[in-house]
């Protein structure tokens, strides 16, 4: 699981940027509202106050622009975005301006929000995580056949000549309940081999089976398949076949999703 898979969903929403912008606006307003007459050097304190407020406002404007251009302008056209920014600004202003009366409640609220954010990020990691089990490189494609190099993770690459124009990994998976996925469980798999289909989605006759399929042993897989309804935490045990059209000189990754399913994604070409 890389950092990009965590950050990407957050960048697709304007809310993280707009919340930060609202907090900065609230902090700037709190800074401007502070009196400087009782300071030892009121003029200097007033100057510092305005400089700090201008810096905070400037960074808030930058965050606002990021909220428009990174997720896309269409996502900012929502009245809820303005409400979220306003609430963030009011909370930040109140907490910073009235520290004695509101500081502790706001601190508790922020800690609770941080905890919820942590759970949110954990759920993103759990339900968007994936494991690459193989790569498929298309060496050549003719009218009715294709030449593939299949490289399972930790195994020896094999060269295959298969009928058709679609290839499909044959993967047996054991999918766990969402609670176990949230706690860190990943889908178990047994990568059986490859199948192929023509342009009318008719299966070819050149299926390939690995002599030693990566992943679960056949005995373990058969046990889960027979007893899936009796094993706590197991959602299902099933065979997954996802088809992808072969493109000459393209390379694809075969991924297992944490919450089940097989996905074929282009890597190059």
Compact description:
The protein has 269 residues and is α+β, with helices and mostly antiparallel strands. It has 2 domains: 3-126, no CATH class; 132-268, no CATH class. The protein has 8 helices and 10 strands.
Topology:
Elements: H1 3-11, H2 15-33, H3 42-69, H4 73-76, H5 79-97, H6 99-128, E1 130-141, E2 145-152, E3 158-163, E4 166-176, H7 178-182, E5 188-197, E6 208-209, H8 218-227, E7 234-241, E8 244-245, E9 251-257, E10 262-268
Characterization of this structure:
The chain is an alpha+beta fold and 269 residues long. It has 2 domains: 124 residues, no CATH class; 137 residues, no CATH class. Helix content is 46%, strand content 27%. The protein is built from 8 helices and 10 strands. The strands form 2 sheets. It has a 5-stranded antiparallel sheet with strand order 3-2-1-9-10, with no helix packed on it. Strands 4, 5, 6, 7 and 8 form a 5-stranded antiparallel sheet that branches. A hairpin with a 5-residue loop joins strand 2 and strand 3. It is elongated, with a radius of gyration of 28 Å. The relative contact order is 0.12. The model has no long low-confidence stretch (mean pLDDT 83).
Task: Note the main attributes of this structure.
single chain; 269 residues; alpha+beta; 2 domains; 5-stranded antiparallel sheet; 10 strands
